[in-house]
């Protein structure tokens, strides 16, 4: 029997972005994604959240700049539904602890991300990078792991160096959905899922599929693998808005995830749609 959707508890979008667009700073937005070459601000997102009964979000860095991290924290101060920020800090700098201490004093900074998908695998072995990661736990922060599917073996070695740091994998490591390729991604995800300190976001999938022709069936094998590897207790919903909009309306992605998890218990649905993000990021309660 199909279970009812879990809509009564607090629902959290664990992965969305804001930006003021410029060609120089957003060169990764290629011509196929030209529709998002513009500003995206809280006033653009809030109506979409209300439509889909999403109560809170975690705003994630899109540029590797301290200026952006400060800006995101300011947006969170102005919009209480932005309950957490995953910012960027220069983890390889020798004086990064002073930066982390300053930013974490805001309380809204809940995690850090470095765009490892743009780095060679050897970057994950750097002594200074790993020293920076070691500092995060001391300040009650988490780490968002953004890698491509071929980087998963190196990422597994990285997370093994930090068994006490809460880590969440973004976008399922961007599997090759458009090519319908499942291996070696599936084997690597199963291996990563054996690390209990690692969670995973159900996010960023539609932009790895055929933008204009994807179906839920195209995504299902990857969602099933994530459920097997991490279980409902370590998965969290994320939209990857506004990036997702090149392939899906916000509401369509919410509906798609709800369809994927509707056979789970109500409690498991609530975990994925909000409770896991609340716990992982230690988000504040809605007043």
Give a summary of the structure in a few sentences.
By secondary structure, this protein is of the alpha/beta class.
Task: Give your account of this protein's structure.
- The structure is a single chain.
- This protein is an alpha/beta fold.
- The protein has one domain: Metal-dependent hydrolases (TIM Barrel).
- Helix content is 36%, strand content 13%.
- It contains 9 helices and 8 strands.
- The chain has helices spanning 42-51, 66-78, 96-104, 127-138, 152-160, 185-192, 216-230, 250-261, 266-281; strands at 12-16, 56-60, 82-87, 109-114, 142-145, 167-169, 198-202, 235-237.
- It has an 8-stranded parallel beta sheet, sandwiched between helices.
- Helix 2 (66-78) links the parallel strand 2 (56-60) and strand 3.
- Helix 6 runs parallel beside helix 7.
- The longest helix has 16 residues, at 266-281.
- It is globular, with a radius of gyration of 18 Å.
- Residues 1-5 have low confidence and may be disordered.
Task: Supply database-style keywords.
eight-stranded parallel beta sheet; disordered N terminus; TIM Barrel; 287 residues; alpha/beta; 9 helices
Task: Summarize the helices and strands and which ones pair or pack.
Blueprint: E1 12-16, H1 42-51, E2 56-60, H2 66-78, E3 82-87, H3 96-104, E4 109-114, H4 127-138, E5 142-145, H5 152-160, E6 167-169, H6 185-192, E7 198-202, H7 216-230, E8 235-237, H8 250-261, H9 266-281
Helix pairs in contact: 5-6, 6-7
Q: How many domains make up the coordinates?
A: 1
Give the second-level CATH assignment, the architecture.
Alpha-Beta Barrel
**How big a fraction of the residues is strand?**
5-15%
Whole-angstrom Rg: 18 Å
Largest sheet report:
8 strands, parallel
Overall spatial form: globular
What order do the strands of the largest sheet run in, or round the barrel if closed?
A: 1-2-3-4-5-6-7-8
**Regions with pLDDT < 50 over 5+ consecutive residues?**
1-5
């Amino acid at each position: 029997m199909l279970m009812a959707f879990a809509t009564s508890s607090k629902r959290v979008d664990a992965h969305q972005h804001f930006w003021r667009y410029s060609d120089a700073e957003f060169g990764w937005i290629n011509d196929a994604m030209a529709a998002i070459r513009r500003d995206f601000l809280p006033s653009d997102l809030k109506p979409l959240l209300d439509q889909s009964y999403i109560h809170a979000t975690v705003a994630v860095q899109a540029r590797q700049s301290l200026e952006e991290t400060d800006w995101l924290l300011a947006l969170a101060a102005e919009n209480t539904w932005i309950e957490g920020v995953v910012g960027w800090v220069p983890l390889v700098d020798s004086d990064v602890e002073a930066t982390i201490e300053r930013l974490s004093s805001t309380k809204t900074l809940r995690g850090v991300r470095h765009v490892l998908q743009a780095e060679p695998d050897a970057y994950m072995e750097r002594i200074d990078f790993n020293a920076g990661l070691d500092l995060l736990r001391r300040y009650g922060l988490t780490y968002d792991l953004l890698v491509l599917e071929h980087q998963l073996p190196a990422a597994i070695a990285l997370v093994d160096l930090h068994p006490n740091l809460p880590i969440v994998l973004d976008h399922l490591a961007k599997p090759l959905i458009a090519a319908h390729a499942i291996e070696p991604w599936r084997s690597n995800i199963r291996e990563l899922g054996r690390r209990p300190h690692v969670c995973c976001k159900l996010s960023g999938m539609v932009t790895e599929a055929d933008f204009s022709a994807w179906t839920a069936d195209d995504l299902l094998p990857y969602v099933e693998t994530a459920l097997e590897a991490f279980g409902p207790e370590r998965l969290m919903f994320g939209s990857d808005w506004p990036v997702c909009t090149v392939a899906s309306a916000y509401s369509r992605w919410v509906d798609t995830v709800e369809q994927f998890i509707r056979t789970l218990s109500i409690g498991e649905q609530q975990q994925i749609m909000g409770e896991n993000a609340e716990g992982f990021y230690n988000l504040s309660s809605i007043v």
